[in-house]
């Protein structure tokens, strides 16, 4: 086998590996949790050996099948991005052509401070027509 064939074989093997597994990056806290569970699985387990890779894959697959439905909502709440929210609101209401009153009030307060007047519902004035509700003792009710 010449050097070119060896290089080509190595490239093909790397391509095969990349189809089987994907690498992800986890934070330090998640890595510690995976290590703790790996140690727990391997503790007093003589019939095999779990790697962090095995434990992490199991955790993800188990989570997919057993996590409550409100977990997605909680993940979304933890991952809120103020700028993304503003862009989404702008896109939605720009197409509608009108801002809701509460958003408009919040924006006015942001730009004008406490001097911004709140949008209040206007009260209807009383009409000059009324029912005479004066009762005389001599009249029959």
Question: With helices defined by DSSP (H or I, 4 residues minimum), what is the helix count?
Answer: 6
Distance between the termini: 119 Å
Radius of gyration: 34 Å
Q: Helicity range of the residues?
A: 55-70%
Shape: elongated
Return the string of H and E elements: HHHHHH
Mean pLDDT: 81
Beta-strand residue percentage: under 5%
User: How many β-strands, per DSSP?
Assistant: 0
Q: Note poorly predicted spans.
A: none
Largest sheet: none
Structural class: mainly alpha
Concise summary:
With 141 residues, the chain is mostly helical. It has six helices and no strands.
Describe what you observe in this structure:
- This protein is mainly α and 141 residues long.
- Helices cover 60% and strands 0% of the residues.
- The protein has 6 helices and no strands.
- Helix 2 (28-42) packs across helix 3.
- It is elongated and about 105 Å long.
- The chain starts with a helix and ends in a 29-residue tail after the last helix.
- The mean pLDDT is 81.
Features:
mainly alpha, 6 helices, 0% strand
Helices and strands in order:
Elements: H1 3-20, H2 28-42, H3 52-66, H4 70-78, H5 82-96, H6 101-112
């Amino acid at each position: 086998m010449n050097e070119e064939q060896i290089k080509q074989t190595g490239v093909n093997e790397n391509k095969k590996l990349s189809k089987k597994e994907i690498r992800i990056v986890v934070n330090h806290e998640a890595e510690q949790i995976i290590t703790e569970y790996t140690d727990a699985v391997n503790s007093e387990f003589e019939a095999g050996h779990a790697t962090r890779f095995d434990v992490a894959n199991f955790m993800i697959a188990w989570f997919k099948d057993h996590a409550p439905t409100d977990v997605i909502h909680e993940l979304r709440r933890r991952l809120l991005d103020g700028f993304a929210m503003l862009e989404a609101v702008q896109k939605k209401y720009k197409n509608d052509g009108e801002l809701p009153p509460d958003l408009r009030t919040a924006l006015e307060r942001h730009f004008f401070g406490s001097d911004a007047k709140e949008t209040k519902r206007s009260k209807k004035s009383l009409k000059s027509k009324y029912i005479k509700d004066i009762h005389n003792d001599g009249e029959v009710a």
